[in-house]
Amino acid sequence: MPSDQLLLTVLGSATPYATVDNPCSGYLVTSGDTRVWIDAGSGTLAELQRHTRVDELDAIWISHLHADHSADLLTAYYALLFADIDLAAPIPLYGPPGTADRLAHFLTNGPGRSPVEAAFAVHELYDGHRAEVGALTITSRAVRHDMPAFAARVEGSGTSLTYSGDTAPCTALTDLAVDTDVLLCEAESDRAPADGQVHHTPENAADTARAAGARRLIVTHVGRFLTPADATSRAGALLGRDVEYAAPGETFTL
After folding, report:
1. What confidence tier does 69 reach under pLDDT thresholds 50, 70, 90?
2. Of 78, 95, 165, 199, which shows the fewest CB atoms inside 10 Å?
3. Could you give the CA distance from residue 129 to residue 68 in angstroms, rounded to a whole number?
């Protein structure tokens, strides 16, 4: 029998494009028989198949529609409808407003709109959205990015994981992460810009973790002007304890 523990598997954590050994943002969260693909950045569908078939997913959850978090929805569509999968029902897909039309725009190349709803049962996120997915509960909050974006808190088996998606530091993320067991937080920026900040620095990730009372911090989506060692050491120095990195292929027991 599958473990009822909450598990986080890193399918990829690169930004803004994949490297030869690290796809873009994507994670598989499991508890027992429940499987949720969180963010579908380029390259993550291939890695997902090391762990599960796409038609065995209970849901897909997308933080925002930048390609490094959503591009593999396009190939997942082809997998579900036009390959070796006999899809029993559309896969529930939770994403920002406009997700279905954005997919259809990219996939349609003819007079008729591509039938994205045959592959995905699309549910549009809003601030405070709550979904029950098998053994898991997923709560979403709107966060501060340069397009509509959401963070997620996943709860199951008495454990919680909060995922920042892409966002500048904001009250919504901190509130969502209060007393979370694990904060999976992006650390894209080398330094915060004076205006228009849309990402966390490593220090911001530490601040968010400390303000929320998160028991564990894992940094992800580390920018190209940083190394994972830079990000974890900078965040750890401010937080006063060890910080982990979302290395591709790693599975964390939460």
Report:
1. very high
2. 78
3. 23
